[in-house]
Amino acid sequence: MKYRCAHCGKIVDKPSGHVNRARKAGLNLYCNRRCSGFGRRTGKTQAQKREEKRLYDIEYQAKNREKRLAQKREYHKRTYDPVEAAKARKKRMPYHVEYCRRPDYKAWKREYDRRYRAAEFGEFAEAYMLTIDLNREIKGRITNAQVKYQNGCTNKSQRREREAGQGPSRNRHSTVNR
What we know:
Blueprint: E1 2-4, E2 11-13, H1 16-25, H2 33-40, H3 46-63, H4 65-79, H5 82-101, H6 103-118, H7 125-141, H8 144-150, H9 156-164
Antiparallel strand pairs: 1-2
C-alpha cells in the first residue's frame, strides 16, 4: 500500500497492515527511521526540556508523596547497614569538625539556634529574641562585681552582723588563749 511520508513527503510502499493500523490509531507514517526521528522532534531547546521536566517532577512529587515516602522507607530498610554507616561517618568526622570551627559557620549556627529556641514561643518569637538581645546588652554594660553587689551577694557576713545590731568583729575567726 502506498502512502506519503509525514516528514519528507516522499511516496513509499509498505504492507497494508502497517498502514491501516497506523491510520486507525491516528499515527503519522514515515518512510524510514531517519524521517521518523526528525518527524518526532519537538523543536524545544535543552533548557525548555529541563524546565518542563522540573515542573513535571514537582507536580508528580506532590501527587505521589505518600507512595514515594513508602518506597524510600522500604529502600532504606533494605539497604541500610549501621556498621558501614558508622565507618563512613567516622571517616568524614575530621572534615566536619574543621567545618564547625569556621567563623562563618559559628555565626550561622548562633543565629539558627537563636531562631530555633524562639520558635517555641510561636507568634511571640520576635519578642523573645528582642528580650534576649536586650538582656545581653544590659549585662554587657556592667561588670560581674557590680551585678553581685546589686544582688546582695557581696559582704554577706558584714551585712548580717549589721542587721543583727552588732558592729563587724575583726577577730571573729581567731581564738584567744586564756
